[in-house]
Amino acid sequence: MTSDMTRFRVKVPKSSVCYMSWTIDAYDGVAFLKNESEEGVVSIFCSPDYEEETERIISAFEAEGIAVERLGFNGGV
Asked: Tell me, what DSSP letter sits at residue 67?
C-alpha cells in the first residue's frame, strides 16, 4: 500500500463481502476490496483520481439494499 491510495473503510453484512469484491473487481482497476475481519469490516482502496467513482459504487451497494456502515475515509493513506 502506498501513500497515494485512498481508503474507504466500511462494515457490511458478511454475506455481501464476496459480491462486493467481485463487483468492484469488475470495474477493472477503479478500486480493490480487502477483507479486514470476520465481522464484515472491509477496506476499499482506490487512487485519488477514482474517489468519486468509488463513492458512487459504495452508494450503489446501498441502493441495492446492502447495509453499509461507513467507518472512515482516509485520503492519501
From this structure: -
Q: Look at residue 22 and tell me if it is in a domain.
A: yes
Whether 39 maps to a domain, the answer reads yes
Range of the domain at 24: 10-74
Condensed to tens digits (0 to 9), the pLDDT of residues 37-64 reads: 889 999 999 999 999 999 999 999 999 9
Give the number of other CB atoms < 10 A from CB of residue 22. Answer: 10
Cα angle 19, 76, 31 (rounded to 5 degrees) comes to 25
**3-class DSSP state for residue 66?**
coil
Domain total for the chain? 1
